Amino acid sequence: MSRQLTAGLLAGALSLSLLGAAVAQADETRIRFQLDWRFEGPSAPFLMAVERGYFAEEGLNVQIDSGSGSAGAINRVASGAYEMGFGDLNALVEFLAENPDGPGIQGVYVVYDGSPASVFARKDRDIESPADLAGKSIAAPAFDTGYRAWGIFAAANDLEAGAVEWQNVDPALRETLLVRGDVDAITGFYFTSLLNLEGRGMDEEQLTIMPFPDYGVPLYGNAIIASEAFSEANPEAVEGFLRAFNRALAETLADPEGAIEYVRNRDALIDVEMETRRLKLAIASVIDTDEARANGAGGVDEQRLREAIQLVADAYDLPSVPEPERVFTSSFLPPQEERMIFPERAE
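Below the sequence we write its predicted structure tokens.
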């Protein structure tokens, strides 16, 4: 065979290969996904699903971007800048109540079966229980879930909501104020504020920690959310996204240390030890719950969801109460048996 003919055949094969790749890429559904926060431990399953090709196997081209809070993630999905995102289901209730005629957004997979909101109080201020918070000062940013949902926590623990003195503070100052003793307590996400306090020299033994789920607050936490317009036009894509994520979450639960590598691959500057601990704290506190183990990851209990929506509407003084089906749909979830993903607990 002549050299010219061989070169021509090789060039033709290369062209066909590139054309095939282009066609395959064109067939993929693009999903821009907005996280609620920076690339930290809890973002591991999302990043794993990208890097291991789980989304690609579902015919999806997924772009994962860091965020700056649940409200931002929800607004960006609502605006059409992103097709899907990750945000606090209670913030979604607020958005839907305040925008009844706005773009539809729904939760499609609950990741945090309970709210990570927690009270962190100084033991040296004689605070051992919710009742001991009466007359004390508490600091948090005004948008903090613990701040916003304080009335729910107080009512669940027979404490007058107005019995404490609130200080609206910058997020960067919250833990510092507690460490310095300028306030008696703060509210914050369990796996964020605890690590921040430890980083500032305050050990867990010095704290009374009251996670909202352990103190009678039935709120759900963060969920994968999707634009209704996108879901209606691309139901298979949403189903595929959740299958891929569910697969990655199962592997994250089985091996948190290995999962952190996908976060480091995205942000080489992370503190691997800290983010591994953050991920494990998130799993233990709000992901691997008894209810999720019993019913499978991702879903909701309808009565609990209805109750949670009403509690949020009352606590946030919302203008309306969204119906549960506007807040969450289970229609895109993998079958329940595929969501029974939790490893056996150590004795």
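The two ends are 70 Å apart (CA to CA).
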